[in-house]
Write a structure and sequence with these properties.
Structural class: alpha+beta
Shape: globular
Number of helices: 3
Helix content: 40-55%
Strand order of the largest sheet: 2-1-6-5-4-3
Low-confidence stretches: 4-11, 20-30
Distance between the termini: 80 Å
Length: about 160
């Protein structure tokens, strides 16, 4: 009788542990699928931003930023808020034409915030001189999810060469 009771207790424990493991595995897979979905949405945002830069289109850049977004270009003051961000990009696009490709090095997500570390490489046409020069940068994006959509909250870059 004692052996039967012990066997029943062990079987109950094994079944309970097995079910808990399956629950944890299901939760892990769910989180992994959610992470991949969020990561894909961020990648799409970054490539949409790249396309807007290459098109020199302020009207395509602005909707990608949060209303309090900050643009921190190298060798220039920070632009804070959409009006300043708009003015900064208008100046950039009057001065140069980018033809770059983005390479995503890292994306980390925590709730409604994320960061992305990227690099870019291509060419820049300087409108004042007509000269085309190599362009190579590294970038850091701080992203915020607002109303289910990822936006650029902070963006900084610097030249690698």
């Amino acid at each position: 009788m004692r052996a039967l009771l012990l066997t029943t207790a062990l079987l109950t424990l094994l079944v309970a542990c097995n079910n808990k493991t399956k629950d944890n595995l299901h939760q892990f897979n769910k989180n992994t699928m959610n992470y991949q979905s969020e990561k894909s949405a961020i990648e799409k945002l970054l490539f949409t931003y790249r396309d807007a830069l290459n098109a020199s289109d302020v009207n395509k850049v602005l909707p990608l930023y949060t209303s309090d977004g900050v643009f921190m270009p190298s060798n220039a003051p920070s632009a804070i808020g959409l009006e300043q961000v708009k003015t900064a990009y208008e100046f950039v696009f009057r001065s140069i034409q980018l033809n770059i490709e983005f390479f995503i090095d890292e994306i980390e997500i925590s709730g409604d915030f994320a960061f992305a570390r990227t690099s870019s490489k291509g060419t820049t046409l300087i409108h004042a001189s007509g000269q085309t020069v190599p362009e190579e940068n590294r970038e850091l994006f701080v992203l915020q999810k607002i109303n289910g959509e990822w936006k650029i909250a902070r963006y900084m870059f610097n030249k690698m060469k």
